[in-house]
Amino acid sequence: MEVVIVPDAKAGGELIAEAMAALLRRKPDALLGVATGSTPLPIYEALTGKVQRGEVDASKARICQLDEYVGLPAGHPESYRATVLRQVVEPLGLTEASFMGPDGSASDIPAACEAYDRALAEAGGVDLQLLGIGTDGHIGFNEPCSSLASRTRIKTLTEQTLVDNARFFDGDIEQVPHHVITQGIGTIMEARHLVLLATGEGKADAVAATVEGPVAAIVPASALQLHRHATVVVDEAAASKLKLADYFRHTYANKPTWQGL
């Protein structure tokens, strides 16, 4: 696992955006897996800037989403599909034809989950999957004790997640859907490159457990230790509990593999 320590969220966004741009230069039709929330916004802003300045051509890129609420009506502004279209697809100048995600309004949710897994495989697999991390070490909506072999499936949101997400629904927890479709850890692990971005002191314990702790279902993100190409990008605050922080800083300073991604 590569651990890259950066000064702040903006620097992390720039670094990851350049890795994505480098991928698109090598493989113009790469399938990019994206995440929602506030953490990846600096990545999307930096990548959009590169496209607008002509530094990279993203016109053939494909985008897929990590998870989706169950039961929101089509076009709901807080659905993850609408969020990804607004924050990623449209700013990059792409159309909905370049985008794929699970159907959270399907009448048969288990079948929709299986269909999304198949669609990802038929598309050739995800080339680079962006991830965030929860304070409890969850990735996607794979909460602690999720199976490390899990596939795309329906999950029930925890009370804390409902509280956290209420800010996107005018602060009304009653409006937050109680179920989501999420790529399982096994599905996530099939991506060719996993890139996790974490910022802020509140993520420090989760980052330390992910990077330096044992691989365990209680910390779902620890599964990244088993991936053939996983990169964790953290700011100084999120890196504050890492015992090997000085080693990681030295590794980043010398950039042994990152620029070749």
From TrEMBL:
Pfam family, one: Glucosamine_iso
GO MF entry, a single one: identical protein binding
Domain of life: Bacteria
GO cellular component: cytoplasm
InterPro entries for this protein: Glc/Gal-6P_isomerase, Glucosamine6P_isomerase, Glucosamine6P_isomerase_CS, NagB/RpiA_transferase-like
Domain Glucosamine/galactosamine-6-phosphate isomerase as annotated: residue spans: 10-230
Residue numbers marked as site, Part of the allosteric site: S146, R153, K155, T156
Catalytic reaction annotation: alpha-D-glucosamine 6-phosphate + H2O = beta-D-fructose 6-phosphate + NH4(+)
Active site: D67, D136, H138, E143
Enzyme Commission no: 3.5.99.6
NCBIfam families: nagB, PRK00443.1-4
Entry similarity comment: Belongs to the glucosamine/galactosamine-6-phosphate isomerase family. NagB subfamily.
Identification of the protein by name: Glucosamine-6-phosphate deaminase
Organism name: Streptomyces coryli
